[in-house]
Write a structure and sequence with these properties.
Bound molecules: zinc ion
CATH architecture: 3-Layer(aba) Sandwich
Number of domains: 1
Strand order of the largest sheet: 3-2-1-4-5-6
Number of strands: 6
Structural class: alpha/beta
Order of helices and strands: EHHEHEHEHEHE
CATH class: Alpha Beta
Shape: globular
Length: 186
Protein backbone atom coordinates (compact mmCIF):
# COMPACT_ATOMS: atom_id res chain seq x y z
CA UNK A 1 0.00 0.00 0.00
CA UNK A 2 2.89 2.37 0.63
CA UNK A 3 4.29 1.66 -2.83
CA UNK A 4 6.12 4.06 -5.01
CA UNK A 5 5.00 7.45 -6.23
CA UNK A 6 4.36 7.86 -9.94
CA UNK A 7 7.76 9.43 -10.50
CA UNK A 8 9.50 6.48 -8.84
CA UNK A 9 10.06 8.41 -5.64
CA UNK A 10 9.27 6.46 -2.48
CA UNK A 11 6.18 7.54 -0.55
CA UNK A 12 6.77 9.50 2.62
CA UNK A 13 3.50 9.46 4.47
CA UNK A 14 1.68 11.46 7.10
CA UNK A 15 -1.73 10.82 8.62
CA UNK A 16 -4.39 13.53 8.78
CA UNK A 17 -7.40 12.88 11.01
CA UNK A 18 -9.99 15.48 10.07
CA UNK A 19 -12.23 17.10 12.68
CA UNK A 20 -12.71 14.33 15.23
CA UNK A 21 -14.11 17.01 17.52
CA UNK A 22 -16.99 16.67 19.94
CA UNK A 23 -19.59 18.59 17.92
CA UNK A 24 -19.11 16.04 15.13
CA UNK A 25 -18.66 12.98 17.35
CA UNK A 26 -20.88 13.10 20.44
CA UNK A 27 -22.43 16.58 20.64
CA UNK A 28 -24.29 18.76 18.09
CA UNK A 29 -23.87 16.68 14.90
CA UNK A 30 -22.66 13.54 16.66
CA UNK A 31 -24.01 10.00 16.36
CA UNK A 32 -23.26 6.48 17.61
CA UNK A 33 -21.60 5.82 14.24
CA UNK A 34 -19.35 8.87 14.68
CA UNK A 35 -18.36 7.68 18.18
CA UNK A 36 -17.48 4.27 16.73
CA UNK A 37 -15.40 5.87 13.96
CA UNK A 38 -13.62 8.22 16.39
CA UNK A 39 -12.77 5.31 18.72
CA UNK A 40 -11.47 3.30 15.77
CA UNK A 41 -9.30 6.27 14.73
CA UNK A 42 -7.99 6.48 18.29
CA UNK A 43 -6.97 2.83 18.40
CA UNK A 44 -5.14 3.07 15.06
CA UNK A 45 -3.46 6.35 16.00
CA UNK A 46 -2.21 4.79 19.25
CA UNK A 47 -0.54 2.07 17.17
CA UNK A 48 1.11 4.43 14.69
CA UNK A 49 2.07 7.31 17.00
CA UNK A 50 5.78 7.98 16.81
CA UNK A 51 6.05 6.04 13.55
CA UNK A 52 4.39 8.48 11.18
CA UNK A 53 3.61 12.21 11.53
CA UNK A 54 0.01 12.66 12.69
CA UNK A 55 -2.04 15.81 12.21
CA UNK A 56 -5.35 16.22 14.01
CA UNK A 57 -7.44 19.03 12.57
CA UNK A 58 -10.04 20.77 14.71
CA UNK A 59 -12.92 22.68 13.21
CA UNK A 60 -12.72 25.88 15.26
CA UNK A 61 -14.93 28.86 14.48
CA UNK A 62 -15.01 32.48 15.54
CA UNK A 63 -18.16 34.18 16.82
CA UNK A 64 -20.65 34.75 13.98
CA UNK A 65 -18.46 32.80 11.59
CA UNK A 66 -19.91 33.02 8.04
CA UNK A 67 -20.06 29.20 7.92
CA UNK A 68 -22.80 29.37 10.59
CA UNK A 69 -25.16 30.64 7.86
CA UNK A 70 -25.09 27.08 6.51
CA UNK A 71 -24.72 24.92 9.62
CA UNK A 72 -25.68 27.08 12.56
CA UNK A 73 -23.26 27.55 15.43
CA UNK A 74 -20.87 24.64 15.98
CA UNK A 75 -17.25 24.11 17.00
CA UNK A 76 -17.08 27.60 18.45
CA UNK A 77 -13.58 28.32 19.74
CA UNK A 78 -13.31 27.91 23.50
CA UNK A 79 -16.28 25.54 23.73
CA UNK A 80 -16.19 21.79 24.32
CA UNK A 81 -17.71 21.28 20.86
CA UNK A 82 -14.41 22.27 19.23
CA UNK A 83 -12.32 19.99 21.46
CA UNK A 84 -10.95 16.70 20.19
CA UNK A 85 -13.07 13.71 21.18
CA UNK A 86 -11.98 11.47 24.04
CA UNK A 87 -8.26 10.82 24.34
CA UNK A 88 -7.36 11.92 20.81
CA UNK A 89 -5.58 14.97 22.20
CA UNK A 90 -3.16 12.69 24.06
CA UNK A 91 -1.78 10.71 21.14
CA UNK A 92 1.00 13.18 20.31
CA UNK A 93 -0.33 14.47 17.02
CA UNK A 94 0.11 18.00 15.73
CA UNK A 95 -3.18 19.72 16.55
CA UNK A 96 -4.28 22.10 13.83
CA UNK A 97 -7.31 24.37 14.28
CA UNK A 98 -9.00 25.34 11.05
CA UNK A 99 -11.93 27.61 10.16
CA UNK A 100 -12.85 26.17 6.76
CA UNK A 101 -13.76 22.77 5.31
CA UNK A 102 -10.35 22.48 3.62
CA UNK A 103 -7.63 21.92 6.23
CA UNK A 104 -5.08 23.50 3.86
CA UNK A 105 -7.00 26.78 3.61
CA UNK A 106 -5.65 29.48 5.90
CA UNK A 107 -3.40 27.08 7.87
CA UNK A 108 0.28 26.13 7.70
CA UNK A 109 -0.55 22.50 6.89
CA UNK A 110 1.08 22.52 3.45
CA UNK A 111 4.30 24.20 4.55
CA UNK A 112 4.51 21.87 7.56
CA UNK A 113 4.11 18.76 5.39
CA UNK A 114 6.63 20.03 2.84
CA UNK A 115 9.15 20.93 5.53
CA UNK A 116 9.13 17.34 6.77
CA UNK A 117 9.27 15.90 3.25
CA UNK A 118 5.79 14.37 2.98
CA UNK A 119 4.41 13.39 -0.44
CA UNK A 120 1.61 10.97 0.52
CA UNK A 121 -1.29 11.43 2.93
CA UNK A 122 -3.56 9.03 4.74
CA UNK A 123 -6.78 10.89 5.45
CA UNK A 124 -9.62 9.96 7.82
CA UNK A 125 -12.31 11.80 9.73
CA UNK A 126 -15.69 13.47 9.73
CA UNK A 127 -17.58 14.36 7.61
CA UNK A 128 -16.60 12.30 4.57
CA UNK A 129 -18.55 14.54 2.18
CA UNK A 130 -17.55 17.89 3.71
CA UNK A 131 -14.25 18.48 5.51
CA UNK A 132 -12.66 15.18 4.45
CA UNK A 133 -13.56 15.73 0.80
CA UNK A 134 -12.43 19.38 0.77
CA UNK A 135 -9.18 18.48 2.51
CA UNK A 136 -8.63 15.77 -0.09
CA UNK A 137 -9.22 18.43 -2.76
CA UNK A 138 -6.70 20.73 -1.08
CA UNK A 139 -4.16 17.90 -1.02
CA UNK A 140 -4.86 16.99 -4.65
CA UNK A 141 -4.32 20.57 -5.83
CA UNK A 142 -0.96 20.55 -4.03
CA UNK A 143 0.11 17.29 -5.72
CA UNK A 144 0.04 14.96 -2.73
CA UNK A 145 -0.84 11.32 -3.29
CA UNK A 146 -3.85 10.44 -1.16
CA UNK A 147 -5.24 7.34 0.54
CA UNK A 148 -8.59 7.69 2.32
CA UNK A 149 -9.22 5.08 5.02
CA UNK A 150 -12.90 4.49 4.45
CA UNK A 151 -13.74 2.75 7.71
CA UNK A 152 -12.17 5.64 9.63
CA UNK A 153 -14.53 8.18 8.01
CA UNK A 154 -18.23 8.83 8.30
CA UNK A 155 -20.73 11.43 7.21
CA UNK A 156 -23.08 13.54 9.28
CA UNK A 157 -25.70 12.44 6.74
CA UNK A 158 -24.80 8.73 6.42
CA UNK A 159 -26.06 8.29 2.85
CA UNK A 160 -23.46 10.79 1.65
CA UNK A 161 -20.45 8.77 2.85
CA UNK A 162 -20.21 6.34 -0.06
CA UNK A 163 -21.17 9.00 -2.62
CA UNK A 164 -18.30 11.20 -1.42
CA UNK A 165 -15.83 8.30 -1.61
CA UNK A 166 -16.94 7.62 -5.18
CA UNK A 167 -16.55 11.28 -6.16
CA UNK A 168 -13.10 11.54 -4.56
CA UNK A 169 -11.99 8.40 -6.36
CA UNK A 170 -13.23 9.57 -9.74
CA UNK A 171 -12.08 13.19 -9.67
CA UNK A 172 -9.04 13.19 -7.36
CA UNK A 173 -7.79 9.66 -8.07
CA UNK A 174 -7.58 8.72 -4.40
CA UNK A 175 -6.84 5.22 -3.20
CA UNK A 176 -9.56 3.92 -0.87
CA UNK A 177 -8.36 1.46 1.76
CA UNK A 178 -9.39 -0.10 5.07
CA UNK A 179 -7.59 0.70 8.30
CA UNK A 180 -6.78 -3.00 8.71
CA UNK A 181 -4.07 -2.34 6.12
CA UNK A 182 -2.39 0.04 8.57
CA UNK A 183 0.47 -2.35 9.27
CA UNK A 184 1.62 -1.88 5.70
CA UNK A 185 2.54 1.74 6.27
CA UNK A 186 4.29 1.48 9.61
ZN1 LIG B 1 -17.39 24.15 10.68
Amino acid sequence: MVGMARNGEENKSAFIAVDLVRDFVDLKFGSPEAVKVAEKNLSLLKKIQGKIPIILTKDTHIQNDPEFRVWGEHCLEGTEGSELYGKLGEIGGRIMPKRHYDAFFGTDLDSYLRDIGINHLFISGISTDICVMHTVAGAFFRNYRITVLEDLCCSIEPEKHQTALNIMKSIYGITIALSGKAGEFL
